[in-house]
Amino acid sequence: MALDKELKTLGKKQYHIHLKPGDIGKYVLLPGDPARSDRVAKYLDNAEFVAENREHRTFTGYYKGVKISVTSTGMGCPSATIAAEELMNIGAECLIRIGSSAALQDDIKIGDLMISTGSMKNEGTSRFYVPDCFPSVPDFDLTREIIDTAREMQPQLSGKVHYGINASDDAFYGETEEWIQKLSGLGCLNVEMESSALYTVCHRRKKRAAMISAVSGNLVTGDVIYENVNEGLVKGWDEEIKIVLEAIYRFEQKLQAETI
Prior knowledge:
- There is one protein chain.
- This protein has helices at 5-9, 34-41, 77-89, 140-153, 177-185, 195-204, 231-259, and strands spanning 27-30, 45-53, 56-63, 66-71, 94-103, 113-122, 161-169, 190-192, 208-218.
- The protein is α/β, with parallel strands linked by helices and 260 residues long.
- It has one domain (23-259): Nucleoside phosphorylase domain (Rossmann fold).
- Strand 7, helix 5 and strand 8 (190-192) form a beta-alpha-beta unit.
- It is globular and about 45 Å long.
- The chain starts with a helix and ends with a helix.
- Belongs to the PNP/UDP phosphorylase family.
- GO terms for molecular function: uridine phosphorylase activity.
- It holds the Pfam family PNP_UDP_1.
C-alpha cells in the first residue's frame, strides 16, 4: 500500500517545522516572513522561541492567558500548506494568516487592513485537495470575530478596515496589467499568495482558518513602495497583530462559555 503521510506523521515531531506535540497552542498565527514571527512574539506574554527550520520560525506564548503560537510559512501556497498540515498534526485548531497584501481597488490605501471572506484560487496547490470548482472560504465564526474586533478597534487604527473576497496568485512577477485589471473588475479587493490553499487544507481537516493582511501597495493605482521602508505597511503589521490577538481571546472566551 502507498504511504499515508498524514497517518505516518500525526502526533510526532514534524519534518519541516521541527515542532512536536506540546510546542504550540491551538491558535497559530501564520506570517510569511520569519522575521515577522519575532514581531508577533513581542505582543505575547512569556514568549519562547521554540524552533526554526527552513522558512519556519516559531514562538509560543500567551495573550490574556490564551496559549498562542506563531509560525512563519514562507511565500506561496505549497510552503504554507506544508506548515499548516504539520501544525495540525501536533494540535493546531485555528490557523490565522497575517501579513501583507496588494490592493486591487482604487479606494484602498497602504496600511489599510484587509479581512478575507473568501479567496479566488489562482494557484495549483488546492487542486491536490479539491476540484477547481470547490470554493475556498475561511471559517465563518472565526472570521466574524476578527471583523467585529477590527470594527471596534477602528478608531485606534491608522487606516481603514476592509473585508471581502481576495485572490491568491502563484506568480508574483507573472501578474500582468491585464491580469490585475481582470481581478479588479471581478471585484477582488486584494491579492496575496497563501490564503486559498490554507482555507482548503483546513476545511479538509475540519479545522478553522482565517486571514487578515495589511496593504503593502495598490496595483491598480500604482501606489507601491519596493525600495524604501514602507512605514504604512509596518504600522499595519502591528495593528493586525493587535486585532488578531484580541479576537482570539474573545473567540476562546465564547468557546469556553459554550462548554459550560
